């Protein structure tokens, strides 16, 4: 039995589960329900004998705008204020680990996961896409590892998994600059394996690929993923632990407060390194 969700719809047809991220505005945003319910959803998909492959897609004009700062703001405010002490930092550490588990549930699922990406894929959207096994996109797709522009170290999967996908140098460039890249560059870097002219053509290609995978012997396909994960996810786990400790210690800062104020006031932030 698949759980009922407010942030996504799930359908299963011919052994293919489609998880469609509901749009809040132009694209999906990752609020409390997403982070709390994602592990249970992927555990249920993993346990279902009727599901052999999963396709993740976004509704609206894009794949995902990442963390819903407005919805997550009250919880974050309790642990990242400038006066945050040991208790608040311990809560922040636990919170980061909880968010990490939501994204890692995608990578840990024994069923292959295809990300079909159109429009914007920002911040947490890149975390989510990086946890998928295959990424394809439409020509209008744009990607951004944007956390640095918010005075944050990306901490729920991008830095742990992206180097194995696009290499160390490209990962460092995207993470240090927070720059936006288009579908053509994403293809050159290997972030996506194919680019399709339109979102409609992307969706058709995702369905064809999912059907190909679903037609193969399911236990063999799951075995392939588990063998590949033995190497990649062991390294990712170490990275995730390191960044959780780093952000628990360093995320509360004047620069973070300035980034949040600039976001609310729709202006460019001025960082001081404090």
State the gist of this model:
This protein is α/β, with parallel strands linked by helices and 274 residues long. The chain contains ten helices and nine strands.
Helix content: 40-55%
Report mean pLDDT, rounded to a whole number.
95
Tell me the number of strands: 9
What is the correct CATH architecture? Alpha-Beta Complex
Question: How many structural domains?
Answer: 1
- Note the overall shape: globular
Helical segment tally?
10
Percent of residues in β-strands: 5-15%
Determine the structural class based on helices, strands and strand pairing.
Answer: alpha/beta
Sheet having the most strands: 6 strands, mixed
What distance lies between the first and last C-alpha atoms, to the nearest angstrom?
Answer: 49 Å
Strand order of the largest sheet: 1-2-3-4-6-9
Q: Which fold name corresponds to the CATH topology?
A: 2-enoyl-CoA Hydratase, Chain A, domain 1
The oligomeric state of the chains shown is single chain
Poorly predicted spans: none
Overview of this protein structure:
The chain has helices at residues 32-47, 69-77, 86-108, 124-131, 158-166, 168-177, 183-189, 199-214, 218-250, 254-265; strands at 8-13, 16-21, 53-58, 113-117, 120-122, 134-138, 142-144, 180-182, 194-196. β2, α1 and β3 form a beta-alpha-beta unit. The model has no long low-confidence stretch (mean pLDDT 95). Strands 1-2-3-4-6-9 form a six-stranded mixed sheet, with helices on both faces. A three-stranded mixed sheet has the order 5-7-8. By secondary structure, the protein is α/β, with parallel strands linked by helices. It has ten helices and nine strands. The chain is globular. It has one domain (8-198, 213-265): 2-enoyl-CoA Hydratase, Chain A, domain 1, CATH 3.90.226. The protein starts with 7 loop residues before the first strand and ends in a 9-residue tail after the last helix.
């Amino acid at each position: 039995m698949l759980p009922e969700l407010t942030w996504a719809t799930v359908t299963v047809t011919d052994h293919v589960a489609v998880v469609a991220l509901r749009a809040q505005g132009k694209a999906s945003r990752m609020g409390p329900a997403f982070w709390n319910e994602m592990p249970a959803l992927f555990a249920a998909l993993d346990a279902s004998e009727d599901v052999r492959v999963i396709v993740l897609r976004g509704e609206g004009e894009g794949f995902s705008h990442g963390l819903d700062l407005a919805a997550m703001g009250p919880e974050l405010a309790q642990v990242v204020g400038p006066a945050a002490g040991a208790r608040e930092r311990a809560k922040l550490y636990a919170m980061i680990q909880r968010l990490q588990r939501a994204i890692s549930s995608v990578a840990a699922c024994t069923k292959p996961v295809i990300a079909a990406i159109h429009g914007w894929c920002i911040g947490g959207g890149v975390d989510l896409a990086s946890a998928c096994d295959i990424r394809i996109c439409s020509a209008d797709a744009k990607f951004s590892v944007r956390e640095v522009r918010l005075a944050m170290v990306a901490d729920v999967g991008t830095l742990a998994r992206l180097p194995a996908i696009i290499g160390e140098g490209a990962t460092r460039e995207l993470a240090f600059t927070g720059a936006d890249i288009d579908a053509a560059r994403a293809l050159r870097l290997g972030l996506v394996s194919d680019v399709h002219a339109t979102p409609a053509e992307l969706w058709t290609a995702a369905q064809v690929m999912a059907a190909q995978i679903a037609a193969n012997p399911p236990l063999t396909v799951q075995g392939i993923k588990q063998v590949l994960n033995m190497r990649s996810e062991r390294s990712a786990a170490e990275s995730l632990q390191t960044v959780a400790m780093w952000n628990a210690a360093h995320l509360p800062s004047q620069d973070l407060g300035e980034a949040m104020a600039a976001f609310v006031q729709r202006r460019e932030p001025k960082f001081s390194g404090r």
